[in-house]
Design a protein that fits this description.
Structural class: alpha/beta
Radius of gyration: 23 Å
Number of helices: 9
Order of helices and strands: HHHHHEHEEEEEEEEHEEEHHE
Distance between the termini: 36 Å
Number of domains: 2
Strand order of the largest sheet: 2-5-6-10-12
Helix content: 25-40%
Strand content: 15-25%
Largest sheet: 5 strands, mixed
Length: about 280
């Protein structure tokens, strides 16, 4: 995409390149990189085995073909940073589609996720070695339970509960059922976020224990735009608020650990207990 932009070509109108050697493509001035050629060949191979009769012009086929990630220039970016943002935005939408679809099934995706800034920052700015479960619904003893954010890094599983309401709101924590929220001179109550966080940690711990997975679990209360004060903060809970968020997030970004086998085992065990609501494409 960068080469397309530098050479002034309109990527949105370019047809898929022929299957030729990389050096021949470059000699002939074809700037379509081998990565995108790979996506094109992958599409052809993936859909051949499907023993299903369907109209090639149908909407289902068109949707299946969109599984190849092919970024394009919607307009003429003025600089490299603008181009990078355009690429990442298109990749984000592709990631959401990939996460909610398979070749044979698809799920209805709530439109709110498209504009979710926290989800976007996690997917666009954290290392690719991190595995993310964003408000999944887990099956616990045949009952569906919605939990908060689970971030499986190469070294540990982070259970994250987000407490964000008005900008610069202050939350006063305690061991009671409710916390106090202060905005200016106004006070109100919110449900203690530790209730849900502790439940999530207990569920994940139970899943790991059942499958004999030894993987550390940490609990985090997160507020990007507010302040959290908790006198006598529990030792096993980390509080990240407006004062410490940038430092914490930067530390995650700078992680250089590669993916690890135990990390995959931990993520797979969670995935095995996730409830999926989907329907067949032909339906």
């Amino acid at each position: 995409m960068k080469l397309q932009w530098e050479n002034g070509a309109d990527f949105s109108e370019r047809e898929e390149s022929p299957d030729v050697e990389e050096e021949e493509q470059l000699k002939e001035g074809n700037w379509l990189t081998p990565l995108f050629s790979l996506f094109g060949r992958r599409k052809e191979r993936e859909f051949e085995p499907l023993d299903v009769e369907m109209d090639t012009e149908s909407e289902e086929v068109n949707e299946l073909e969109d599984f190849g990630f092919n970024p394009y220039l919607l307009n003429n970016p003025t600089n490299l940073e603008h181009l990078r943002k355009l690429f990442l935005d298109q990749l984000f939408h592709f990631q959401l589609k990939w996460a909610s679809s398979t070749l044979r099934e698809t799920s209805h995706l709530d439109a709110k996720f498209m504009g979710d800034k926290l989800l976007r920052s996690f997917t666009q700015q954290l290392p690719d070695s991190f595995l993310l479960f964003y408000y999944p619904i887990l099956q616990v003893k045949k009952a569906p339970v919605e939990v908060d954010i689970i971030l499986v890094t190469p070294l540990e599983c982070l259970c994250i509960t987000v407490v964000e309401q008005e900008d610069i709101a202050a939350f006063v924590g305690s061991g009671d059922r409710f916390w106090t929220k202060k905005v200016g001179t106004k006070e109100s109550r919110i449900l203690n976020p530790l209730i849900g966080l502790n439940r999530m940690e207990k569920i994940i711990s139970g899943i790991f224990s059942t499958q004999s997975i030894d993987f550390p679990i940490k609990k985090i209360i997160l507020s990007r735009n507010g302040y959290i004060d908790y006198p006598g903060n529990p030792f096993d809970i980390k509080i990240i608020d407006r004062r410490t968020y940038s430092e914490w997030f930067t530390a995650l970004q700078q992680s250089t650990f590669p993916m690890k086998f135990n990390q995959f085992k931990a993520a797979q065990s969670i995935l095995d207990n996730v409830k999926t609501t989907a329907f067949g494409r032909m339906e």
